[in-house]
Amino acid sequence: MFMGEYQHNIDTKGRIIVPAKFREGLGETFVITRGLDRCLFAYPLSEWKLLEEKLKKLPLTKKDARAFTRFFFSGAVECEVDKQGRINLPAPLRTYAELDKECVVIGVSNRVEFWAKGHWDTYFEESEGSFAEIAENMMDFDI
Questions:
Q1: Is residue 125 part of a domain?
Q2: What is the pLDDT of residues 29-57, one digit of tens each?
Q3: In a domain, 54, yes or no
């Protein structure tokens, strides 16, 4: 399980350090793709395969299902951690998430998310104000 929040910078070559606490869970090779809310999602290969199987079951005839799977899979790439614990984020993913310098890397249960620091700060501030309402809505999911 991934949890916690870390701040790192992207270097001029598009590389970012994967926090040591996340490297063991992600493995040497993992999948990273466009996520929701303008961040990137990273999954260990085992989690990616589970997600892939679920998405394959979505009906091809549903417009939203086609749109979501295209969005999710077209941005996906396998990343390898180098000897310094960094990954090289492809330019299209950096552009999508607007990652150019300061980043926040967070653990979210079965995935790791990469955020531009400004986007994360705004998201967190906005979510913090409605956390009670979000928690109440989560009751519908038996949490």
A1: no
A2: 999 999 999 999 999 999 999 999 999 99
A3: yes
